[in-house]
Write a structure and sequence with these properties.
It is a single chain. By secondary structure, the chain is an alpha/beta fold. The chain is built from six helices and seven strands; from the N terminus they run H-E-H-E-H-E-H-E-H-E-H-E-E. It has a single domain, classed as Vaccinia Virus protein VP39 (Rossmann fold). Helix 1 packs parallel to helix 2 and helix 4 packs parallel to helix 5. The radius of gyration is 16 Å and the shape is globular.
Length: 190
């Protein structure tokens, strides 16, 4: 199925039937990172999931001049996928941890924060609430560590609210971030 009209068909389960890959926004984020002379990328939620998912770690390693690319995930399998695909890059660090807790303790500045993790909804809440709250929490953990000229990229924002971007985008905008693009991913820059 090809999506040519900009709408994303929704299946009976409430999720996408087809969606375009995030390649353009990943590459745009990489270009902005390089223009800002960024050094550190933190990716919360990682893995190598194929072209339709964008394979962000390959974009960061191949298209940025990052000194540190930190991939954080709760699943060892995801980290193993990334290690296998990025073995030749010395700037990739793999961390098995809760990303929010890791970022709270992170001592350095962050130039690009990429959010692509999954969290369940608390029992009895409206679908998407758990993700919206977790993404807000991740931003709150990172906001004081974000460099003056920094980028936030949020995956899977082509979904009805509440969702990953529902709370984080207004908070980031109040802290001086501008929304550069919205769709499959949302890209913010300060």
């Amino acid at each position: 199925m090809t999506n040519t009209d900009g709408y994303i068909p929704i299946a009976d389960n409430g999720f996408w039937q087809y969606r375009s890959p995030p390649t353009r926004s990943l590459e745009q984020a990489a270009d902005l990172f390089n223009q800002n002379k960024g050094e550190t990328i933190i990716e919360i939620g990682t893995g190598i999931h194929g072209g339709i998912a964008g394979n962000s770690m390959l974009v960061w390693t191949q298209k940025t001049s990052a000194k540190r690319i930190i991939a954080i995930d709760l699943e060892q399998q995801r980290l193993d996928e990334v290690r296998a695909a990025t073995r030749q890059y010395d700037n990739v660090e793999l961390v098995l941890a809760d990303g929010i807790e890791y970022v709270k303790q992170f001592p350095d500045k962050i130039d690009l924060l990429y959010l692509d993790f999954w969290t369940p909804d608390p029992k009895g809440t409206f679908p998407g609430t758990g993700r919206a709250e977790a993404y807000r929490d991740s931003y709150n953990a990172a906001k004081d560590k974000m460099n003056t000229h920094s980028i936030i990229l949020i995956d899977d924002t082509d979904h009805v609210h509440p969702w990953k971007h529902t709370y984080i985008v207004p908070l980031a905008r109040m802290n001086g971030y501008k929304v550069l693009c919205v769709g499959r991913q949302t890209l913010l820059k300060r």
